[in-house]
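[agent] plan:
  1. take the single chain provided in the ticket
  2. run structure prediction with default settings
  3. attach structure tokens to the ticket
  4. add a short note for the reviewer (M.T.)
[agent] executing step 1
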Amino acid sequence: MEELNKRLAEWAGISPNTSYGYPSTWLFMFPNGDHGVLPDFPHDLNACMKWLVPKAISEFGIQKICSALSNALFHAYMSNTNDTADRFCKAIEKLVLREKEGS
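[agent] step 2 finished; step 3 output follows
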């Protein structure tokens, strides 16, 4: 799951902070210029909404993102688990991979 988190962060424009002359392993630079700890996207739906959804909507359109989120919510509910964020992250990753394959 850590690799999924890193791939999504990179896709969203979140990168290791290099202000000390080398890439930090724990401090990251966000697209809005803020610095902070890398969100744990597969476990934090709020972080997904803040950092992944805006970019996903601009790249894939709101219809695909709403479909991915509703699908993740439905399957998490039906399986009686609390893994909505993880399912949503995997759905976004699939959209990103499809987009790359189509290019």
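[agent] step 4 note for reviewer: The mean pLDDT is 89.
[agent] ticket updated
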